[in-house]
Amino acid sequence: MRFLYKIYSNYDGFRPAVLPERMDGRRLRLLGWRRYIDVVEKGWECWVYFHGRHRFENGVYAKGIVDGIDLEAGEVSLRVREYRTDRPITPRETSARVAEAVSTRFRQVFLWPDDWTVAPVCEPSACTGRQCEDCETWLKLPLIGEGESRIPSRLRWSTYDDVVAAHWIVPRRCYETRIRSDVRDLTRRFTEFKLGEMAYAFPFALAIFEQLRRRDLLEFDYVVPIPLSPDKAANGEKHRTRELARELGGLLAVRVGEMLSLSESVSKRRMQADGYTVSQFEGRYGEALQASVPPDARRILLVDDVMTRGSTAAQALRVIEKQQPHAVVVVATAGQMIVKEAVVDDEGFTLSG
Q1: Mean of the pLDDT values across residues 179-191?
Q2: How far is the C-alpha of 57 from the C-alpha of 117, rounded, in Å?
Q3: Which one is predicted more confidently, 206 or 140?
Q4: Where does residue 59 rank: exposed (0-12), middle (13-18), buried (19+ CB within 10 A)?
Q5: What average pLDDT does range 202-228 have in this prediction?
Q6: Checking DSSP bridges between strand 255-256 and strand 222-225, what pairing results, if any?
Q7: Residues of 297-322 as b/e, b for ≥16 C-beta within 10 angstroms?
């Protein structure tokens, strides 16, 4: 759900130019929510519209997500994703529509008008334009539900706060054959993403964001991507986890920090084909993995594109903990491969009957 919030600058001099002064870091305290305080949830979007007689153009100067709710005071805290102090961040025609929507006097909070939501044609250009929040196709693709999955086995000795995966992904060899068509469609899109269609980074990041929102996991100091192997970088392969991290950083209003790197290329598939065990891969990968974790990284969102049994994430968690023992880390992936050890309830991806 989305909201519009109106600020009349003549009331107490709160105009766009003083936005940095009114924010605590990236947080902006907003009054007047009592009417909606019982329905508003963390992670929901809000646009802030300024109007008044001061020397600025009326319009939307800030957008953000709700990250704090004070039930007694009827106030919310907004974590600002983007803002400007010199001119509106939306076109004039959009600002005019917002002005009309919030024209009711003596009210500050307004629900996003239903007729503003126009479903785009589902194609990569719409994903590039970040229209997926209104895309009926993406909205219908299933998320992994609560209680459907368990933590993969290779993470059993790791230290982490939570592991969050957005979607079930069908592996090339899957033990289950009764896979729903929407899960196969989602897997096709994920495969296109792995093959270089970076437009899909936003909708997959959006799905991760929604899973984090449902778990009230929105507070991070950094979003950290799993590094790209040097040989893949040399071959010009797209850095999928970096793009996911950048999109998530924008959605969460959190910095992206590339704290992890590989000193050499280590391929799990190649090593297993040569007869090496998973443990041997982890040892080799762990030796090649390097970390540079800043002291202010207290809460980290570690991002990978997909997880099977968690070997790569386990080694990343190990090197992060070695450098920053007190850091709290949440692991997030766009997909969880359908493997028996990760499945608790298969209703989320199998045909009924």
Answers
A1: 95
A2: 25
A3: 206
A4: buried
A5: 96
A6: parallel
A7: beebbbbbbbbbbbbbbbbbbbbbbe
Handedness of CA 291, 296, 298, 304 (dihedral sign): negative
pLDDT at 129 over 90: no
Residue 151 amino acid letter: I
Q: In what order do the strands lie in the sheet with 328-337?
A: 162-169, 328-337, 299-307, 222-225, 255-256
Whole-number Å distance between alpha carbons of 226 and 240: 9
Contact 337, 171 (CB under 8 A): yes
User: In this predicted model, what pLDDT tens digit does every residue of 78-101 receive, in sequence order?
Assistant: 999 999 999 999 999 999 999 999
Confidence of residue 48 (pLDDT cuts 50, 70, 90): very high
- Mark out the alpha helices in the chain (DSSP H runs): 9-12, 19-22, 92-101, 124-128, 136-140, 181-194, 201-214, 230-234, 240-252, 268-273, 278-288, 311-323
- Above 90 in pLDDT, residue 120? no
Strand partners of residue 45: 2, 65
What secondary structure letter does DSSP report for 342? G
Q: How far apart are CA 118 and CA 120, in angstroms?
A: 6
Strands 299-307 and 222-225: what pairing? parallel
Average pLDDT of 207-222? 96
Q: Three-state DSSP class for 290?
A: strand
